[in-house]
Amino acid sequence: MKLKLLLSILAFAVLIGGASVAYSKLAEKSNGGSNLQILGSGQGASPSSGGEGSAVSVNPSGQSTPVQGAPQEGSVEEQSAAQTPAQDPPVGENPPAEENPPAEENPPAEENPPAEENPPAEEDPPVQPIVPSVPDFTVYDVNGRAVKLSDYFGKPIVLNFFASWCSPCRSEMPAFQAQYEALSDEVAFVFVSVDNTVSDAKNFVDSQGYTFPILHDAAGSASAAYAVRSIPATFFIDRNGTLVAQAVGALSHADLATGIGLIK
């Protein structure tokens, strides 16, 4: 009886593994040999500015005119009349001396205008909070500590769902290990196991010498949040929490590097 049960479990595992491989190959063929699906990108533009010129006009100088009251040439009679001494004016009362005009008062000193108050320093605009468009979830590390996907928001995220018994998952792990070693300071690698127990996933990772941390989706809530129906499944999320690309099936080294380049 036990032998039949063991054979049934083994046959079921082989069937699941074969189905995963077949699905992965079918996805590669339908996508031109690549499982990576790019979802979108954006671009920006900047305005340009111009300037203005100015002109200066010059006024021409005027001509000189004769001085009014200058002596003119005339007849001899006019000249002799001019030489006759002038008669003294009749004696009369001396004209009253002109009063000295009152001294002009000094204008009041202009008061210094009040010093302008320093304008208040402009405050920096408030930092807009990150509003991710991807769903959050809670999973657990190998020590049973709860970890949320939102713990990594603000940093590019590579989210991968895998299982120790999944052959396509095993085939892509060397590429993930290489990228993790090179970019773990810049990119958050979140590996979520859908194994029955976290120890199954840990034993597999340790036996292969992989050093990336793993998390366990004990309740299946993370898989449900991302509608994961086949594994491996990988999601590339930028630092703003926007899903940029995704893949169902094993990723090649080149496709994994391309996906990471889209979110860095």
How would you portray this structure in words?
This protein has a domain at 2-31 and 132-263: Glutaredoxin (3-Layer(aba) Sandwich), CATH 3.40.30. It is built from six helices and eight strands; from the N terminus they run αβαβββαβαβαββα. It has helices spanning 2-30, 76-83, 167-183, 198-208, 221-225, 253-263, and strands spanning 36-38, 138-140, 146-148, 157-162, 188-193, 214-216, 233-237, 243-248. The strands form two sheets. A six-stranded mixed beta sheet has the order 1-8-7-4-5-6, covered by helices on one side. Helix 4 links the parallel strand 5 (188-193) and strand 6. The longest helix has 29 residues, at 2-30. It is rod-shaped. The model is unreliable at 26-31 and 41-85 (pLDDT under 50).
Please outline the major beta sheet.
6 strands, mixed
End-to-end distance: 55 Å
Could you name the CATH class of one domain? Alpha Beta
CATH architecture of one domain: 3-Layer(aba) Sandwich
| Overall average pLDDT | 75
What's the β-strand tally? 8
Helix content: 25-40%
Percentage of residues in strands:
5-15%
Cross-sheet strand order for the largest sheet:
1-8-7-4-5-6
Radius of gyration: 48 Å
Shape: rod-shaped
- Low-confidence stretches are 26-31, 41-85
- DSSP helix count? 6
As for the CATH topology of one domain, it is Glutaredoxin
The CATH homologous superfamily of one domain is named: Glutaredoxin
Secondary-structure element pattern, one letter each? HEHEEEHEHEHEEH
Structural class by helix and strand composition: alpha/beta
